[in-house]
Design a protein that fits this description.
Helix content: 40-55%
Number of helices: 20
Number of strands: 20
Number of domains: 4
EC number: 2.7.11.5, 3.1.3.-
GO biological process, one term: glyoxylate cycle
GO cellular component, one term: cytoplasm
Protein name: Isocitrate dehydrogenase kinase/phosphatase
Largest sheet: 7 strands, antiparallel
Shape: globular
Low-confidence stretches: 602-606
Mean pLDDT: 92
Radius of gyration: 26 Å
Catalytic activity: L-seryl-[isocitrate dehydrogenase] + ATP = O-phospho-L-seryl-[isocitrate dehydrogenase] + ADP + H(+)
Length: 609
Amino acid sequence: MFPQRLDSPVAYAIAQAMLDGFDLHYRLFRQESAAAKQRFEQADWHAQQRAQRERIAFYDKRVREAVVRLEQEFQAGKQPMEVWHQAKLHYIGLLINHHQPELAETFFNSVTTKILHRTYFNNDFIFVRPAVSTEFIENEEPAAAPTYRAYYPTRDTLLENIERIVTNFQLRREFDDLRRDAQAVLEAMSARLVGVKLRANFQVQVLSSLFFRNKGAYVVGKLINGFNEVPFALPILHDDQGKLVIDACLFGEDDLQMLFSFARAYFMVDMEIPAAYVQFLRSLMPRKPRGEIYTALGLAKQGKTLFYRDFLYHLKHSSDRFRVAPGIPGMVMLVFDLPSFPYVFKVIKDHFPPQKDTTREQVQAKYLLVKQHDRVGRMADTLEYSVVAFARSRFDDALLDALQREAPSQLEIGDLDGDGHEEVVIKHLYIERRMIPLNIYLAEAFDAIEHGDPAIAAAAREQVEHAVVEYGNAIKDLVAANIFPGDMLWKNFGVTRNGKVVFYDYDEIEYLTDCNFRAVPKARTEEEEMSGEVWYQVGPRDIFPETFAPFLLGNPSVKEVFLRHHADLLDPAFWQTHKERIRAGHVHDVFPYEQDKRFEHHALQGAPA
């Protein structure tokens, strides 16, 4: 029970110290995010990628610092629960006029669970639910920038308003021809307004900060006319002369979903009030969970907090059971899911077969690499959790048997809370967005071709072609990001809701620049040529691309499409050329939108990813 009186001086001091730790974290986080503008203006792509990677570690560093301070100054771990209850109430009071209360609550949870060694969700002295509203928070200082700016053009003044929207960001680099680019944007917007009566409320709302990622800066906003709202984004890039250009005009929720995909690196955005940015972005992408939007903005810990709250809410309103996920079992991960929930849960097994020469620590390092790396829309982001409690009644017996057999060190079962109900606690797991495994996606298409009527068979053949082309494109995008996927079997790739192919099995990934791509040596004798064994010397990171074919191209229809579109993936020269360019410092161009959406411009020096 919470105390009726706040009579502990040390409780207030703990709360204030906790908030000091959070404020330091967000100040540094915001400084790094704001510095992305200067790096973009200077076309310092390597520094931009490095900052994106290093910023991920900011949160855990500040949590550790706060834990050390609280232990040294207040012996926090030895304080009675009454003090912690009061500390939480004081903390709530300190957040009433705070601009990032939801992030500060999560920071309190992170520090408290480190000190009190209590990480189950049903804890009285952490914020299981938010205590402070994030609605209608405003910075009342006169010089403060608003969350978004509103422009009120007519048809005749829309062009000059588009120019004003861009110039208001005060980019310190010259545009090649801003009027030309604004005209291209105007034509794209006008196409959406043909035959549409402009209502009295016709306006353009644009978030006040640019969104930076890799080589791109994005204007994000929406057109409002009557009851209709149309999301849009304008990618700003550098051309081959080092001048700025607007590369496209992206429209609608699907385009914005691609831009903010869970398979892409996090944005850098200077936000005073992140909840207001999330609320605006949610109006553009109402199907995207708030947790994923926070994560896309680099606030991954808040994303995890909201995901877990959504997950608990889903458990309360569902009754299906966790099961072993459909598909070919992995050798490193045991994967399970809840059929009604669109995510999968992955646990590292205790033992791996001989062909998997790795350790638990190495697998975790690979997942961290993916978290910190540019995922170019082709590697699924993961949520990593420790000590997660589930109700035993929600587990299928076959799944529990598999966990006890494959990962007993990660499992604890019992009435751990003393409430008369058994729990299953998993000590470490990864959670990813669920996709259709590519091998299953193709198998379903093959079945339709074989058994369906002509129209269904024709659609299935298109499905096969699209999947194979997307598979090759996914590998080439990973190559551009300096990633060699390692195990390239179809089962390690998934198909998203909008048909994108994404890689999700990371235990064998390597940096492309660490691999040695070779042609298979010619046999010197007939015995060598007929041998079923590898007769030539192979180094630990030697890759022979021509040997991919027997594993990938057994189906004739798959083989035909693959060789028509991606035969270069079987050529060592393709891989070696990309490796050498990356080593020379080149940052490849990977676009988060289709090529046909781009305006006609000169060749670009940089492109987003």
